Structure to design on (610 residues):
């Protein structure tokens, strides 16, 4: 095997920038990959696991805090980072050479193991002195371009780095990325193709052939995308984010239920998570392919002629999107339909004590239970408990299996006539008790309060709280929204012409109702979206994880919208007759709606549809 030409500055950059573990700050030893793509020494991860909760099968990355689900054999079973291992071995080999001596490049034209002194650019072979002379004597090869290794090293450093950024191999810097391995979804040089992507196990093609194959597939995928029932074009990034959030939430739900069952079903827990991971990867791979297809066709349409630079850029994009899914094979019978359910995954618990439950592949809802409780305002705590408030009475509803029960009823002396409530991420209850906004702790004691709009006689009508505890207060008669810090200090006032009394906050946006319109604005007051609705809307809530929106219509229907406002479907028909809200999305992934006809709350949950 011919070794790449090494230089001390390049070696130093590689060692300092890429080969040191950020935990022990020394060179990698048995590096392992986490799901977030960060790598650490095996021993460092084992020590890190001891400092975190040893009873869980999760490991939190010290850099980005993302959790990795460990395999059955723990940290040892994590995938090794073979690229880092190879780089460390190469650097160690270089450092063991006598001072001033470089790793030799061996001749590829003979079997005598002579050191190479030059390279033929046409043959792409390294040549020793005798082979170079023979090469130059042959008439058929006399026009070949041959450069000495010294000449190769004298290439301008800036130009070399620029070329490496575009088309050079990380492992063999002197080699161009001229091939694409479809098995690994990865650009590769010729040496890597010989050593790491051997056929027939790997399908390797030149750039032109690979580009043509993917262009044809991208064209078909985009055609399918635009023909799909649910218009997914332009929403793939949002849908992938939603799928990722729901995937994490699904894993959390599986773990929560598993902890309440017997130890003997731990094995089933791991099997379900593996199935969830495969389902997630299968769905996300499909959306990644569609996203690649959209970007590819956009690039092709914007250039009158496709160049090698364009091809390389497109294939690098595919590598970035699909390299991690190279081992995921999707059989025809497993192919996902092009609907919004491509971004959905959840967990459904079985009622028996033998099994944990099953995975939900599509989103379907049904009535879970009805709780007799007065409720003028509704919200939800991080525990999944529902808080229902009417006048000074505060009721807490908690889930037990497939039912919700009232676990406490409290008369709060600090609240008299609340018109809206919300819960912040500290599980403090934020109450609009005109004209004040009050913050109550978990024992429903008043922590502090503020009076928005002091300079006006106008009273606030409604409020909402976001994931960062910012508070938005709406004024129907003034047609504006004031945005406040958690302590009540005013950030800014936003104009909101025609605003009604329903509002929610999610993903740095305020969503509010204006007559029969749904309006999205950012925190600067810039309108992001405005949609006409055929019926009067009487309630709005958001899933803070995915950003999806749920609208309660006057006739009792609940409409599901994506995070960017696209219609997904009608979640269910609420058997309430006419409905005036309120509605809330809980942290247990249920939806709670006040019953209009009598004092009760209807709670809906996702179910398995066979």
């Amino acid at each position: 095997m011919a070794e790449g030409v090494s230089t001390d500055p390049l070696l130093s950059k590689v060692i300092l920038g890429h080969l040191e573990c950020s935990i022990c700050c020394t060179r990698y030893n048995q590096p392992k990959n986490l799901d977030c793509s960060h790598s650490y020494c095996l021993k460092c991860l084992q020590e890190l696991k001891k400092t975190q909760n040893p009873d869980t099968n999760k490991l939190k990355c010290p850099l980005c805090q993302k959790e990795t689900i460990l395999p059955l054999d723990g940290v040892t079973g994590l995938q090794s980072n073979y690229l880092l291992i190879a780089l460390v071995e190469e650097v160690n080999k270089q450092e063991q050479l006598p001072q001033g001596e470089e790793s030799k490049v061996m001749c590829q034209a003979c079997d005598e193991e002579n050191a190479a002194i030059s390279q033929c650019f046409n043959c792409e072979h390294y040549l020793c002195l005798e082979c170079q002379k023979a090469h130059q004597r042959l008439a058929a090869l006399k026009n070949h371009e041959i450069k000495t290794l010294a000449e190769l090293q004298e290439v301008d450093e800036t130009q070399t780095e620029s070329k490496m950024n575009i088309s050079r191999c990380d492992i063999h810097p002197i080699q161009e990325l001229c091939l694409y391995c479809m098995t690994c979804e990865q650009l590769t040089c010729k040496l890597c193709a010989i050593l790491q992507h051997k056929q027939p196990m790997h399908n390797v093609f030149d750039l032109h052939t690979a580009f043509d194959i993917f262009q044809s597939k991208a064209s078909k995928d985009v055609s399918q995308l635009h023909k799909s029932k649910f218009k997914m074009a332009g929403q793939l990034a949002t849908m992938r984010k939603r799928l990722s959030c729901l995937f994490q939430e699904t894993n959390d739900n599986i773990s929560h239920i598993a902890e309440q069952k017997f130890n003997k079903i731990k094995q089933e827990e791991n099997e379900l998570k593996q199935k969830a991971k495969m389902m997630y990867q299968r769905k996300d791979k499909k959306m990644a392919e569609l996203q690649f297809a959209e970007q590819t066709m956009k690039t092709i349409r914007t250039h009158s002629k496709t160049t090698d630079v364009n091809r390389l850029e497109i294939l690098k994009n595919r590598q970035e999107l699909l390299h991690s899914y190279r081992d995921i094979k999707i059989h025809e019978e497993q192919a996902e339909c092009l609907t919004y359910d491509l971004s959905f995954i959840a967990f459904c618990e079985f009622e028996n004590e033998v099994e944990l439950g099953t995975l939900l592949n599509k989103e379907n809802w049904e009535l879970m239970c009805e709780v007799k409780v007065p409720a003028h305002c509704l919200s939800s705590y991080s525990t999944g408990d529902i808080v229902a408030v009417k006048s000074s009475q505060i009721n807490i509803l908690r889930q037990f299996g497939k039912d919700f029960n009232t676990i406490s009823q409290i008369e709060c002396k600090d609240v008299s006539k609340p018109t809206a409530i919300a819960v912040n991420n500290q599980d403090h209850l934020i109450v609009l008790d005109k004209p004040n906004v009050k913050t109550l702790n978990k024992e429903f004691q008043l922590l502090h309060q503020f009076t928005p709009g002091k300079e006006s006689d106008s009273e606030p009508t409604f409020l909402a709280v976001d994931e960062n505890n910012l508070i938005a207060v709406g004024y129907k008669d003034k047609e504006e929204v004031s945005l406040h810090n958690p302590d009540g200090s005013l950030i800014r006032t936003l104009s909101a012409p025609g605003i009604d009394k329903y509002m929610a906050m999610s993903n740095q946006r305020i969503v509010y109702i204006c007559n029969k319109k749904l309006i999205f604005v950012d925190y600067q007051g810039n309108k992001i979206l405005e949609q006409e609705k055929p019926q009067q809307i009487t309630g709005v809530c958001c899933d803070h994880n995915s950003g999806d929106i749920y609208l309660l219509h006057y006739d009792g229907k609940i409409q599901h919208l994506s995070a960017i406002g696209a219609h997904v479907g009608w979640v269910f028909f609420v058997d309430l007759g006419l409905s005036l809200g309120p509605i809330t999305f809980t942290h247990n992934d249920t939806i709670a709606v006040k019953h209009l006809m009598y004092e009760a709350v209807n709670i809906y949950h996702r179910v398995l549809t066979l």
